[in-house]
Amino acid sequence: MAVRPPLIINRLDAERLQRLIDAAGDDAVARALEEELERGEVLDPEEIPTDVISMNSQVRFTDLTREREIVRTLVYPRSLDATEDGVSVMAPVGAALLGLRVGDVIEWPLPGGERTSLRVDAILWQPEREGQFHR
Asked: How many other β-carbons are positioned within 10 Å of the β-carbon of residue 85?
């Protein structure tokens, strides 16, 4: 696997995600997400740079494997139905995006042994940038 870019994770997001991971049991995405949380730099919400994908951020990224530009909002599973362009953080692509910065590229495993490569092109909306530190 290629070297993964450094991650920055909102402390509140990390705490909430750890509870989801603990409840998920032996799930491949949960294990991968936990590895990402362990290697990420955890910062208080007020310290999150404006070019970092945090929970509830709307992101434009390119699936380099399929040569497709995509816009999604990274959400918790419970918010998936209420978010038109949502992608769950407990889905492979959602877990891959968490904590990345604009310009980062990450290779990520998909179900069935496939892999994908994603590039973050822009953060269209980020809670921390809007002063929503405790959403």
From this structure: 12
Give the pLDDT band of residue 1 (cuts 50, 70, 90): low
Look up residue 85 and give its two tokens.
């362009």
Percent helix, percent strand, percent coil in the chain, to nearest 5: 35, 30, 35
- The pLDDT, as a whole number, for residue 121 is 98
- 22 HSE (CA, 13 A, CB side): 6
Name the pTM for this structure: 0.92
Amino acid in position 31: R
Q: Token pair of 50, please?
A: 């404006």
Distance CA 24, CA 124 (A): 30
User: Of the given ranges (26-35, 92-101, 115-124), which has the lowest mean pLDDT?
Assistant: 26-35
Which class for 29: exposed (0-12), middle (13-18), buried (19 or more C-beta within 10 A)?
Answer: buried
